[in-house]
Amino acid sequence: MKFTKLLGLSAAAMLWASGSFAQEITLKLHHFLGAKAPVQTQMLEPWAKRVEELSNGKVKIDIYPAMTLGGRPPELVQQARDGVVDLIWTLNGYTPGLFPRTEVFELPTVFNNDPAATNLAMRDMFDKELKQEYEDKGLEVMFLHAHAGNGIHTVDTPVHSPADVKGMKLRTPSRTGAWVIEALNAQPVAMPVPELPQALSKKVVDGALIPWEIIPALKLQQQTQYQIEGQDHWRLGTSIFQVSMNKAKWDSLPDDVKAAFRKASDEAWLKQVGDIWRTSDNNGIKAAEADGNELITLSADETQAFKDAMQPVVTRWEDEVKGQGIDGPALVKEARELTAEEEKNLASQ
């Protein structure tokens, strides 16, 4: 009997050592969109599963969509910083000015039309230029990413020139988005994206600056008639998102678990995320067109007119961050060069 017990104890010890009984670390990931939104089904869920597999089952990530743990979207950064949740996916623009260096990638003419190249360029620049502004806020970044870019949605007005936008009230995702709208002589209205459908239906806004991928999730095709973008999917800047962990929680993790998170968030993943958002964007506009909406693709000349109108936005950002000791023109130059290099690399693959 004693011998049998000893054998059982030895087997259990071997299983523990092999990882079969490894202690599970359960982490809460909180975000602001619904459970069926592409960001959860196509990005966050696959990423969490990849971390769990690479950690050999040591990590379990529970995803809480639609602010189900409480608060409003702009509070997500504070929730992660304070340790209320372990992980967040959020839009940097909900906390304007908090991550000023990263903002460079939001700017029109820095971002043109390639989310994958932007993701990789941010990775290239991260350690040297961006990392500190997250660590100073008590965050450890898992990865940063862009969406497919801000197009114009309007309730009932076709747009072919900056003059067509003049006087409109447009929902903005960020302060750089607000500057884009102001450069077009329109009025920015800030609000978290879940509030947009009601704002459109009540005529609080005439349209929005937002990508196509969110159309099906928010049923924007029922509230808008026109979607407008430039030639070759050129967009009016983009938004930057982060998946970040509470820094103290990160520091407490074993090295092998940290390695699992890093591997799950590597260069190949960032390219895949770019592809996910491009595909989701394509699917979003297809859903709108199937419901009778019109996609207006600007001609080369019309696109150039919008590009020309965007230069003051870049200058405004450079002036704004100068007061924080940031060399804006140098960051713009580096971001453009890195993005162009990554675009070239991706095209050659």
TrEMBL record:
Keyword presence, Nucleotide-binding: no
NCBIfam families: TRAP_S1 (NF037995)
Main location: periplasm
InterPro entries reported in the protein's UniProt record: DctP_fam, TRAP_DctP_sf
Compartment list: Periplasm
Family matches, as SUPFAM superfamilies: Periplasmic binding protein-like II (SSF53850)
Signal peptide stretch: 1-22
Gene3D superfamilies per UniProt: Bacterial extracellular solute-binding protein, family 7
Protein's name according to its UniProt entry: TRAP transporter substrate-binding protein
